[in-house]
Design goal:
Layout: H1 2-8, H2 23-35, H3 39-52, H4 57-69, H5 73-85, H6 92-104, H7 108-121, H8 125-131, H9 139-151, H10 160-172, H11 176-189, H12 193-201, H13 210-221, H14 227-243, H15 247-260, H16 267-277, E1 299-304, H17 311-318, E2 324-326, H18 352-357, H19 361-378, E3 387-390, H20 399-405, E4 410-415, H21 418-426, H22 440-461, E5 465-469, H23 470-475, H24 477-488, H25 496-503
Parallel strand pairs: 1-3, 1-4, 2-3, 4-5
Helix pairs in contact: 1-5, 2-3, 2-4, 3-4, 4-5, 4-6, 5-6, 6-7, 7-8, 7-9, 8-9, 8-10, 10-11, 11-12, 12-13, 12-14, 14-15, 16-22
Amino acid sequence: MKKNLKNNATAPGKRKQLAPADVPKLVKTGQSLLSNGQTDELIRVCDDALRQVPGHPDFIYLQFLGLIEDKKYSEAVRFLQTWGKHPASRNINTQYIIGYGYYQIKRFRSAKEHLARVLSVKPDMHAARLLMSRALSDARHQRLGLEAIRQGPPTASMSPKNVMTYAIVLKRLEQYSSAKSVLEKLLKSGSMQAECAYELIRLPAETWSPETCNLVEELLRGSKLKDHQKIQLHFSAGRIADHQGRYHDAFRLFAAAKKLSTDEFDFDVFEKAVVACTSETGAPASNLRARNKHCPAVAPVFILGLPRSGKTTLEELLALRPEIAACGEVTPRMFVDADIFIGAQGQLPSNYTDRLTSMKSTQRDMYARQYTEQVCDQFLVPKNTRYIINTMPHNFLNIRTINKIFPSPKFIYIERNIRDLFTFCFMKNFKNEYNYTKSFVTFRRYHDMFHEVVSHWQDALGSNFTRVSYEDMVKSPNTVLDHLHGFLDVDTATGDAAGAKVASVDLTDRYVDHWKNYKDLYSHSDTPSA
């Protein structure tokens, strides 16, 4: 690949130029190869095409996607760097594609640079939309985005999609009133109604007017929407009603959304998974930490908890320390042999137990290195990092596998009042991913089985396992962090600077005991214990 990258930056030489009429056909061929998973052939085709039509944005993007699909993240970065400097890439379409590529792999500084070049030439709505995202936003690029949309306001000839993008840019610039006005006009025009309503609902609740509420309610009563659109809008409108304190209306909207969801959770399959993942404790892989060429001393930390328990907030607090990196919800099976991991719904791989018990130490070490190297590579983790955090909700089903692979892995369980847990799960559109949240009866059954697994492994792992509570985290974050820093053996930050960092995280106790606003959820079942 290095040789190919080098060739990409050179002149096309004596090779016959690709005819303009053949370019769309070759792009379709590349798209077909990508959808079929033929990434090696895709990269070869794009590499050859870029020698003939240097800087063509479609081939740059397809080759970039092929490298990402193969999990060759470092090569993908080098590929974008090569074309970012190439003279043939100075046109704004290619600059946009390169900036978008950087944005996808979270290289935000480079993304800003290339997207700003686009905006310096013309007011491109999509480049402005990316620049206004939370990840890229700063004062300079907000001004660039604002200037771009000033030069290109909606006109009668503008497509509904571009009007929508314009409204989203306004929203990200916190010009909520203007965004609301544009979206309401688009909604009344009959174009992109579901998308308009969804973006309207995502505006701050204080910007909503009775007219806005009536527009969305009228749309929900109509028959033009598909079920998945109705579900999404019911959930979004319910959250607005919750924010405004209209809990009866919120409950009605959430209940309507749950009623439209038809999938049921298969507890028979899940129970077999619970038995399998608690059938042995097993010793960790070794006493030595798996060495990683990028971050030599890195080790994984797994935060366990049910959905809406505060895992992401806890991760954000821990990652305030420079030696701890937040990597979010990463499925280990993406980077290791998928046949040794239990699926999110409890799907057991064939020969699961036999494969774990017969795993050799060399294979364990290979899996551990493979996971840490690829996660560090994908998330651009600094070399001095000691811990990478994983918050995937169904990791609790794979503690047995994780403990088999990694040397002394660390687990943090964050628990929360079951009533608040279910209330916030009931308010969330999980798109059938967590369909045990449809009723309190099914949720409590899942919660009890989850607790059985976690308690089993807490007893088995001893000092490598600890618990914290959501309520303590939002009320006394420094106390919880002191405990976890000791658990991870990292220096405890003290002083004003440490306090300022903690204060930068969005912590509030206003959602503690929020379930009391939704007592109708529990009126037909036994009241859950705290």
